[in-house]
Amino acid sequence: MSTTIFVPCDSSALSLGAEAVAKAITAEAARRGVALRLVRNGSRGMFWLEPLVEVETSEGRVAYGPVLAGDVEALFEARFWEGGPHPLRLGLTAEIPFLKRQERLTFARVGITDPISLDDYRAHDGYRGLRRALELKPAEIVREVTDSGLRGRGGAAFPTGIKWNTVLNAAGEQKYIVCNADEGDSGTFSDRMIMEGDPFVLIEGMTIAGLAVGATQGYIYLRCEYPHAHRALNAAIEAAYGAGYLGADILGSGHRFDLEVRLGAGAYVCGEETSLLESLEGKRGLVRYKPPLPAIQGLFGQPTIINNVISLASVPIILDRGAAYYRDFGMGRSRGTLPIQLAGNIKQTGLIEKAFGITLRELLYDYGGGSASGRPIRAVQVGGPLGAYLPESQFDVPLDYEAYAVIWAVLGHGGVVAFDDTVDMAKMARYAMEFCAVESCGKCTPCRIGSTRGTEVIDRIIVGARRGEQVALLRDLCDTMLNSSLCALGGMTPYPVLSALNHFPEDFGVDKADAA
Amino acid sequence: MSSQAWDHETVRSIVAGLKAKPGALLPVLHGIQDALGFVPPGAVPIIADELNLSRAEVHGVITFYHYFRDTPPGKHTIHLCRAESCQSMNAAGLEAHAKAQLGIDFHETTTDGTISLEPVYCLGNCACSPAIMVDHDVYGRVTPERFDAIVADLRSEK
């Protein structure tokens, strides 16, 4: 009986040398005549420990990490495949506090299963949600999603069930399910981890969505910066077709659902849903006016559900365990869990799936262990490049859509990027405007022109030319962008800019009183 | 793929194989760039003709997306992340080092044709910042020393 060894195939683990570790383990096992079965799993999301090697033992999985190829020989000397002692031994994986304190619903299988093994997926509760959905009427599936309280995890937090209901009731000869996998926000990687670590859960979620609204064609719009996710999705889609989970007759139900991955081409704005639809249609990713909503006239003018990866990947467990099970996590109107991505200047970076309501302070210090540099954490950007910068005085606000709105911040896609006290917040504000200028689709003036003018105004503030006047001008410009841009790119760039100015005026060379 | 020379037939067969897809233009452009390393300006009329689009429409799409390029890249392309998470781990320092070491700016190729340098806004490797992507391989926690080692490996390849 051979022992099973797990070495992640997640891109972040690979970026730290996991491939060389896997090769070294295979070679060393062959040299020593040790019978091992090597599984390339997803990542557990504890990136300071990657590459994390796990061994299946009778007590559960034992972890070793971070393992480099050069450590492999010593691990074999220590008989690691039997869980033997070694300085890199971390004990049972499930007992590592970072992981133990999480509530993993959407990420239940990530890091545990072989991502592209359908057998593994089914052995770990996979496709139970779809089987239940096949017993329900479309309106009942939609009600289940509505009752779960799930809100769009891409950032806008729109209730998923309401969106689905609109598509269900819209008339159209061909309806579509589109997955927004254009995860462009800096500090976010949860979509990538799901697609690389458990692609079937996304496929299952999209199939359920198709059943719910009568859509027979799905597209995953994936950013081209994710080649590993692309491979994993295609392999999983092929396996799902082979086993009758996709295609003309899903599990003999008579329902059709086809699914295809389409690649983006490096345009951040294509993460905006209407721009994404234009891109899928083969056009420049120009943002559309709304209305009409995509739910009424979406892809190729037809009723379309467009949801983020995490939203769709949360659907199978909602159908499997019931709306109430999911809704019982969370606080206020933020129900369920949020996969939070802890990134930037942090000692223990990673993926933390928790019910809404955790605070930044817990994340940064209890989970993250403080900054990587050892210096004080000064500013934290939550919610990607269009999210506000939070100072230490706001670290105790619970992560909840409404609580964040009160302090003029956003949760977005759950990305948390920490900066230590060497950060220059005027530079970060300038960068936000510059990024908007680079990525603007150009359709609306406040974004297209405002971002360039904004960069110039911040440059003048930095060099100190008529500073008070320029600060007033910047606020006026931000007001215009905020209130008259067509989409969130121009409309939310003021969040990082103004939060930097409001909370860190000294970096702009202005007094707190003058900043207002 | 460092040569400007490209085969019209290759482009035609890629377009022919994909033109039936709804919204085929992006898959077509990816197919051409995967095969040739870039989308030659001379391919635009062929694509336009096959997809029944105007040349302006095809050109407009190519230029809208950062990923598509109309000149041949070096033998390897390094994408260096400029986004916030990497900045918090001194990506600006890495960028300056990379440009100095390679002797080129963004969107340029080294004179020996080995390496092209492109900016990128997030590789989804934010837990291991700063990050770069070399062709299709991502590298995390890239120090200047590690960058130099990666470049030396690329240069020693034949």
Produce a short descriptive summary.
The complex is a heterodimer of chains A (516) and B (158). Chain A has 516 residues and is of the alpha/beta class.
Descriptive overview:
The complex is a heterodimer of chains A (516) and B (158). Chain A has 516 residues and is of the alpha/beta class. Chain A is built from 22 helices and 16 strands. Helices cover 42% and strands 15% of the residues of chain A. In chain A, helix 17 (425-439) runs antiparallel to helix 18, helix 17 (425-439) packs antiparallel against helix 21 and helix 18 (445-463) packs antiparallel against helix 19 (467-484). Chain B contains seven helices and five strands; from the N terminus they run ααααβααββββα. Chain B has a five-stranded mixed β-sheet with strand order 2-3-1-4-5, covered by helices on one side. The longest helix of chain B is centred in the last third of the chain and has 13 residues, at 144-156. At the A-B interface, helix 1, strand 12, strand 16 and helix 17 of A face helix 2, helix 4, helix 5 and strand 5 of B.
Strand residues, percent of chain A: 15-25%
Number of helices of chain A: 22
Low-confidence stretches of chain A: none
Main interface by residue count: A-B, 59 and 43 residues
Any idea what the radius of gyration of chain B is? 17 Å
Please mark out the parts of chain B with pLDDT under 50 across 5 or more consecutive residues, or reply none: none
**Percent of residues in beta strands of chain B:** 5-15%
- Give the neighbour order of strands across the main sheet of chain A: 2-1-3-4-5
Q: How would you state the average pLDDT of chain A, rounded?
A: 97
Separation of the first and last Cα atoms of chain A? 70 Å
| Total beta strand runs of chain B | 5
What proportion of the residues of chain A is helical, as a percent range? 40-55%
Shape of chain B: elongated
Main sheet characteristics of chain B: 5 strands, mixed
Numbering strands along the chain, what is their spatial order in the largest sheet of chain B?
2-3-1-4-5
What Rg of chain A, in angstroms, do the CA atoms define?
24 Å
Summarize the amount of helix of chain B as a percent range: 40-55%
Order of helices and strands of chain B: HHHHEHHEEEEH
